[in-house]
Design a protein that fits this description.
The structure holds two protein chains of two kinds.
Chain A (H helix, E strand, L loop, with lengths): L6 H17 L2 H6 L7 H9 L18 H13 L6 H14 L3 H8 L5 E3 L8 E5 L7 E5 L3 E6 L4 E4 L7 E5 L6 E4 L1 H39 L1 E2 L2 E2 L4 H30 L1 H29 L11 H13 L4 H16 L1
Parallel strand pairs in A: 1-3
Antiparallel strand pairs in A: 2-6, 3-4, 4-7, 5-6, 8-9
Chain B lengths: L6 H17 L2 H10 L5 H10 L17 H14 L4 H16 L2 H12 L5 E4 L15 E5 L2 E9 L9 E7 L10 E7 L5 E7 L5 E13 L3 E2 L5 H9 L9 H16 L11 H29 L6 H25 L17 H12 L6 H12 L6
Parallel strand pairs in B: 1-4
Antiparallel strand pairs in B: 2-3, 3-7, 4-5, 5-8, 6-7
Helix pairs in contact in B: 1-4, 4-8, 4-9, 5-6, 5-7, 8-9, 8-10, 9-10, 10-11, 10-12
Classes of the chains: A alpha+beta, B alpha+beta.
Chain lengths: 337, 386
């Protein structure tokens, strides 16, 4: 066991931290709320190889591990990135595994095209609430028969939502751009969902940690009844619980990402665990940080509401923690029976 | 970054499980549960013979020189199996203090036989009027030539009825401020001035109240300086940094999973119940987090850093997790869930009903949840002191 990031991982985190500090200030996040997308941030991310790094060397990528991507996702979450980095990375890897056309994969790697992935199976010819679908060019969808790559240009309706995410409902009546059949395609799609859960867990951890910092800063300076409010146990103990949950979520999400190569037999379970646990930890951090700010926390002018809304929304776009836990429990019992 | 523990870890775990298969018999477990003393001399000496009394100590001091993650791996397996370890735990805590702060004579007279499994040491910190506020101890020790005379009472002196010494925190100068007038001693328990009365607890564990009426302790068994007891407590206890976490919860979940797939004659089969699935998935996730939090402490230890806040997080999280889980599992079992292990029809062998009682203690002893949260808030987050 070695919980320290490697030298290369520290360099990676530092490089992306610098990028996000410049291109994803809370002013920029607010400015992008109408669309959920900051083109300047996306251009910087693409330029820094944010998608390309996720692809294997054979596809012209730099072959980053899922753990490398998880560390970048923590930075993304910490700065509330208004760009579909996780969706683009996960769907690029999926298209490559599926054997998608090389020129398309190359366009996606360079950020010229944005792909996303429908997290739930479509119903009645529509995929609802697809993440990043308002800004992506195409979406990978798993239906009863196959994995389909579907163009988004004329097929989407925007979804106004809690987290200012560029979500869309997507009609699937046009012919797909490509289809990929067979059991292996389904398995590849399932792996993509695991990767999305693991990376989203990391993004939620980064977001939750920053929300907790805001709360600690405020509770240290704000005075009430002649003392800083952070000296009151009623305040401090809630923040200690949030800190403990976030430390647990950090370890668990990093372990889940590590497991994709380090312990493949457990990778899928750990991704689900990390997603559900990080979702709850981030939600608690967001709610309590907001609450610690008192009336100011309820004002749009204070940044804490930006974290509060995304903490819930970034996870809820896929599933609630309870359903994910239920899936885990059912799998464990099936293995035991 | 690497989460794997390596092939040596798997071999060590196999070795511990083989050992437990041989020595931790169902009869022994039943005897411990019935009697309430979570110490068994035969099992204790079998651990000593295996070298697992102090596996992390240097070889020349009677240990095996194992790194912290291997020490933790052994502790994790013992905890998961429900092995009676309370006597070993308190004895090793005091042995660690003496290793760093004891005199040569104390090491020879106490540490050597402790590591050989010949003696046991109990803790005497809490009193009827002080628990979490350890430094408020009122038990008095007064010097009398080469000896000290001890008067007072100590609560929760677990295993005092099996032990040779109590590691006692006593007030030696009431005129000094609270934290400065304290001294630590190893008080011999088998003497006239000491009375040991049993206290039975909610989970059936036996502990004790110990009374000291002109009990005598030679000055040679004083640990640290006179009135330097608080330094001994704070400095000494930092050497006992990593405890296993999550093992009791893992055992509990396994009992529940057995119940869910097997059912009981009067219970309902639950392997298709979504509420059961959710509770099991949540518990498995929390157990993974407990294990990761405690392994982080061992890892920090292994790279020469002192885990403090990290240990508090592992203790807080794992104890509160088993408290939530055991209550929820009783709910899932329905009215059957309150049957105790003495009832032959008890679901999950009565483990859930017992765990619900057992869990309450885990959030209290070894520093209450509130103490842990205060440590995390002040030392971890840097929030101001009240």
């Amino acid at each position: 066991m070695d919980l320290n990031p490697s030298f290369e991982q520290r360099q990676l985190v530092e490089a992306f931290s610098t990028l996000y500090r410049g291109e994803s200030t809370t002013e920029r996040v607010r400015a992008a709320e109408a669309t959920g997308f900051d083109p300047g941030l996306w251009e910087a991310l693409a330029g820094a190889g944010g998608v390309e790094m996720a692809l294997p060397l054979r596809a012209g990528g730099s072959g980053a591990s899922l753990l490398d991507l998880a560390l970048v996702a923590e930075v993304h979450g910490r700065h509330l990135g208004s760009a579909p980095l996780v969706e683009a990375q996960v769907s690029a890897r999926l298209l490559e595994r599926l054997g998608g056309a090389a020129p398309v994969v190359a366009d996606v790697a360079a950020g010229r095209q944005i792909l996303t992935v429908a997290l739930a199976p479509p119903g009645s010819g529509t995929a609802r609430g697809v993440p990043a679908a308002m800004v992506a060019d195409a979406v990978l969808v798993l239906d009863d028969r196959c994995v389909a790559l579907v163009g988004l240009a004329d097929a989407r309706t925007p979804v106004h939502n809690l987290a200012a995410l560029p979500l869309a409902d997507v009609r699937l009546d046009a012919d797909p751009l490509a289809t990929f059949g067979g059991e292996e395609a389904r398995r590849s799609f399932a792996t993509a969902l695991d990767e999305w859960m693991a990376l989203t867990a990391s993004a939620l951890v980064g977001l939750g940690r920053r929300a907790l910092e805001l709360a600690v800063d405020y509770a240290t300076t704000r005075q009430a009844f002649g003392a800083p409010i952070g000296s009151f146990q009623a305040v401090a103990h809630r923040l200690a619980d949030a800190a403990t949950a976030l430390d647990g979520a950090t370890l668990l999400s990093r372990e889940a990402a590590w497991a994709s190569e380090g312990d493949p037999a457990r990778a899928s379970d750990l991704a689900a665990m990390a997603f559900a646990f990080a979702a709850e930890a981030a939600q608690v951090a967001g709610e309590w940080s907001l609450h610690v700010h008192g009336g100011y926390g309820f004002m749009l002018e204070y940044d804490v509401q930006l974290y509060f809304r995304r903490a819930k929304g970034w996870a809820a776009v896929y599933s609630d923690p309870g359903r994910v836990y239920a899936g885990l429990g059912a799998r464990a019992l099936a293995r035991r029976a | 970054m690497e989460f794997g523990l390596g092939g040596g870890h798997d071999a060590l775990v196999d070795d511990v499980r083989r050992f437990l298969g041989e020595h931790l018999t169902p009869e022994l477990l039943a005897r411990v549960r019935r009697g309430g003393t979570y110490h068994d001399w035969d099992f204790h000496r079998a651990l000593v013979a295996k070298g697992w009394m102090a596996p992390g100590w240097p070889v020349e001091l009677g240990g095996q020189g194992r790194p912290p993650l291997e020490v933790l791996a052994i502790a994790e397996e013992l905890q998961r199996a429900g092995a009676p370890m309370l006597g070993l735990g308190t004895t090793m805590l005091v042995a660690s203090v003496l290793r760093h702060l004891g005199t040569a004579a104390q090491k020879e007279a106490v540490v050597r036989p402790a590591l050989a499994g010949e003696i046991l040491i109990a803790l005497g910190f809490s009193e009827p009027e002080s628990g979490s506020d350890v430094a408020a101890a009122q038990t008095r020790a007064v010097r009398d030539g080469d000896e000290w005379v001890v008067n007072g009472q100590k609560m929760f002196t677990t295993n005092a009825h099996e032990a040779d010494y109590a590691f006692l925190l006593a007030r030696t100068d009431p005129t000094l401020p609270k934290h400065r007038g304290l001294t630590t001693f190893l008080v011999p328990l088998r003497q006239e001035g000491v009375e040991i009365r049993p206290i039975t607890t909610l989970s059936g564990e036996r502990t004790n109240i110990t009374f000291y009426a002109d009990a005598r302790v030679p000055d040679a068994l004083r640990i640290g300086e006179v009135n330097g007891g608080w330094e001994v407590m704070t400095v000494g206890l930092t050497y006992e940094r990593t405890s296993a976490a999550g093992g009791d919860s893992i055992r509990l979940l396994e009992a529940m999973e057995d119940w869910a797939v097997g059912g009981t004659p009067h219970g309902r089969s639950a392997d298709h119940d979504e509420r059961v699935h959710e509770a099991f998935g949540r518990a498995a996730t929390e157990n993974e987090v407990s294990v990761l939090l405690s392994r982080r402490s061992a890892w920090l230890d292994s790279i020469g850093e002192l885990p403090g806040v990290e240990g508090s997080m592992a203790k807080l999280f794992s104890s509160e997790a088993i408290t939530r889980q055991s209550a929820q599992f009783i709910d899932l079992l329905g009215p059957e869930g309150i049957r105790t292990e003495e009832d032959r029809g008890a679901p999950a062998r009565g483990e859930v009903e017992w765990a619900y009682r057992f869990a309450q203690g885990t959030t209290i002893y070894g520093g209450t949840s509130e103490i842990q949260r205060t440590i995390i808030a002040q030392r971890g987050l840097g929030l101001p002191r009240g």
